[in-house]
Amino acid sequence: MAKNMNTADDGVARERADAPARLQVVPPGRRDRAGGRGRSKARDGYTAENIQVLEGLEAVRRRPGMYIGTTDIRGLHHLVYEVVDNSVDEALAGHCDTIEVRIGADSRVTVTDNGRGIPVDLVKATGKSALETVLTVLHAGGKFGGGGYKVSGGLHGVGVSVVNALSEHLVAEIRRDGGRYVQEFRRGDAQARIRKVGDSAPAERGTTISFMADRTIFESLAFDFSTLAQRFREMCYLTKGLRIRFVDERDDRDYTFFFEGGIVSFVRHLNKNRQVVHARPVYAERQINGINVEIALQYFDGQTEAAFFFANNINTIDGGSHQTGFRTALTRTLNEYARKAGILKDADSNLTGEDVREGLTAIVSVKLAEPQFEGQTKTRLGNAEVTPLVAQVTTEALTQYLEENPSDARRIFEQCLRAARAREAARKAKDLVIRKSALEGMTLPGKLADCSEKNPDLCEIYLVEGDSAGGSAKQARDRRSQAVLPLRGKILNVERSRMDKMLGNEEIRAMITALGIGIGEQMDISRLRYSRVIIMTDADVDGSHIRTLLLTFFFRNMPELITGGHMFIAQPPLYRVQSGKEIHYAYSDHERDVTVAEFAKKRKGEVGIQRYKGLGEMNPEQLWETTMNPATRTILRADVQDAVVADEVFDMLMGDQVPPRKKFIQTHAKSVRNLDV
Q1: Do 395 and 458 share a structural domain?
Q2: Residue 581 domain-assigned (yes or no)
Q3: Same structural domain for residues 220 and 272?
Q4: How far apart are CA 571 and CA 544, in angstroms?
Q5: CA-to-CA distance for 653 and 675, rounded, in angstroms?
Q6: Are residues 488 and 565 in the same domain?
Q7: Active site residues
């Protein structure tokens, strides 16, 4: 859930402060010393010869981050997703039901499907085969409305061509029209024309893409089995009837994913470690105006919401029109039924959206021909026509379920009414916290050492474990841009607590007030007083526990801090290594050993090693130099790679169900390293 920021010359990941860019405006008519207006091209050397035109896939290799985000393990996995997504699109079109993904012992990835096979005939516009065109030309494919696909997640036509560009070696094999065709590529360039290598049985068809990612571009080729397996599992939940076999030859693992129940099985999987309110999930699927709408929901005895929204199998983590339709219909339908059944009287207030979503697990999946995603990241669906359709399906399905299952309906409303009572009990405490921002006159926490800078983009706040470390941090900080808020003890585990109890915790109230964005449905991320919120705890078991409690609070109550890139984790050094007057700080056991070896080569004197178990063991100068100075510090950014997995992990490790947590600990106990040195 965390990633390194930048890398310094010594190989340690660090964040460095960049000097602000300056813009000089020359008024019209002002002439330079040479007599010309502005700067002459003879002086600045900037002419048409400086303009480069990158041909073909060269732009992808030159700027891979523009196409896959990063060149770390996330970007590496993105290559696999792009190829597999093409096969899944074949399944969505009804032409494929089996996909095999294989990682070889040498980290070569091979994806095989039984779809129609990429066409191999000539494309007049390019003079190349269709296969070579889609593998070497950006924005080329069958998903631009030409009738090849009614539903597709990939709409930009850059996916498989980007994979080709970023691979040392790629081989494509096509089986269609009774023939087997092969073409080979190296770093995006075709090595020869497509050739027919044999015949295929009439029923044999499909595509095989085998690629070796380019080691000169990616930091590592160490694919993570669990991350990929979770993605493939999710795809099979969302595509009923699809079977994905995942083989990892590196350590002889072989898994097959197939879920006949589709998203109903998905909901049951998410609730497997929870006490459910009703045994059978509510489910409906409708095809309206060419748009497929599928919903499944089930309540559990908890205080959190686990609702996920997909468009053409893409997890739209920022929601969109399908989320709006579902939430609106859910709240309206439950209120109408409650009044009709006499559960709510005329004098009673309606249940709010927060009330009806507490303890809700839901999957909403829509499939449509022309999805309008907001940006290449596809995190939000913008199709306005989807909202009323999702609302209609949700209303019909939920109304029918409540009427046919009155006992389940009663238990669902007991859950919602408990949430309503807790909301009312928390109202006064909540008003105290979110009524005004600091600029509107709210008193900031007394123990907060605020910074003098008023521009939030230039400010950061350290949430520090303990008053002792907080005192050192206050002395070490840059008072202009760094604020410090010491936290005493361990905050409440919000995974097991309702809002009223949570807001009774003094440390939580102090954090909410200091950040200034409020909490719950009234939260406004634009009011954030600091662009970086940095958790700084001791490097021991208690520090890890406090950090986990804080991340649980922010993930459940202020997720925008994480998804918006505002949440960070400080990385204080583990060791201080000294030989004579030379001092080096080590951030890992490996770095410590390397430093000790280097010192041993330089001199014969004794090498002293100090293990820092607490921030309080460092004086202010050391704390600034190692942990708070933007030019030298190590800092990790908290990130949510998969919201579904993150929800499961927080629920399992921080929830009130002991058996799943016990099983997890027993399973992973042998892999723990340096739990408490």
Answers
A1: no
A2: yes
A3: no
A4: 12
A5: 16
A6: yes
A7: 465, 538, 540, 542
Domain boundary residue, one of 383, 399, 430: 430
Kindly state whether residues 118 and 141 are assigned to the same domain: yes
Asked if residue 573 lies in contact with residue 586, where contact means CB atoms within 8 angstroms, the answer is yes
**Is 666 inside any structural domain?**
no
| 81 vs 65, residue with greater confidence | 81
Long-range contacts of 619-627, Cβ-Cβ distance < 8 Å, separation of 24 or more: 619/472, 620/472, 620/473, 620/475, 620/476, 621/476, 622/576, 623/472, 623/473, 623/476, 623/572, 624/476, 624/477, 625/585, 626/572, 626/573, 626/585, 627/536, 627/570, 627/571, 627/572, 627/573
Does the residue 36 lie in any domain?
Answer: no
The helix/strand/coil state of 72 is coil
Amino acid at 86: N
Last residue of a domain, one of 430, 464, 483: 430
Does residue 81 belong to any structural domain of this protein? yes
**DSSP letter, residue 527:** G
Q: Are residues 467 and 601 in the same domain?
A: no
pTM (2 d.p.): 0.68
- Residue ranges making up the domain that contains 182: 60-257
Residues 233 and 367 in one domain: no
User: Is the separation of the CB atoms in 157 and 143 below 8 Å?
Assistant: yes
Kindly report the CATH number assigned to the domain that includes residue 303: 3.30.230.10
8 A C-beta contact, residue 571 and residue 537: no
Q: What is the CATH number of the domain that holds 458?
A: 3.40.50.670
In 3-state terms, what secondary structure has residue 651?
A: helix
Would you state the structure tokens that stand for residue 576, as one six-digit string? Answer: 């201080």
Which pair of tokens denotes residue 537? 């705890």
Cα–chain center distance at 523:
21
Q: Per residue in 92-123, pLDDT tens?
A: 888 999 999 999 999 999 999 999 999 999 98
| Number of domains present in the structure of the chain | 4
Interatomic CA distance for residues 134 and 138, integer angstroms: 7
Apex 571 CA angle, 569 and 574, nearest 5? 150
**Residue type, position 454, single letter:** K
Residues 82 and 207 placed together within one structural domain of the fold: yes
Other CB atoms within 10 Å distance of the CB of residue 670: 6
How high is the pLDDT of residue 14? 37
Confidence check: pLDDT of 180 > 60: yes
CA distance 225 to 109: 12
User: What is the C-alpha separation between 6 and 572, in angstroms, rounded?
Assistant: 16
- Beta strands 291-299 and 306-311 are unpaired
Model pLDDT, residue 441: 43
Considering the domain architecture, whether residues 123 and 170 belong to the same structural domain is answered as yes
Task: List C-alpha distances in Å: 380 to 70, 232, 239, 502.
Answer: 21, 21, 20, 30
Helices (H), 292-352: 321-340
Report which DSSP code applies to 491. Answer: P
Q: How confident is the model at residue 84 (pLDDT cuts 50, 70, 90)?
A: very high
Tell whether the torsion through CA atoms of 655, 657, 660 and 663 is positive or negative.
positive
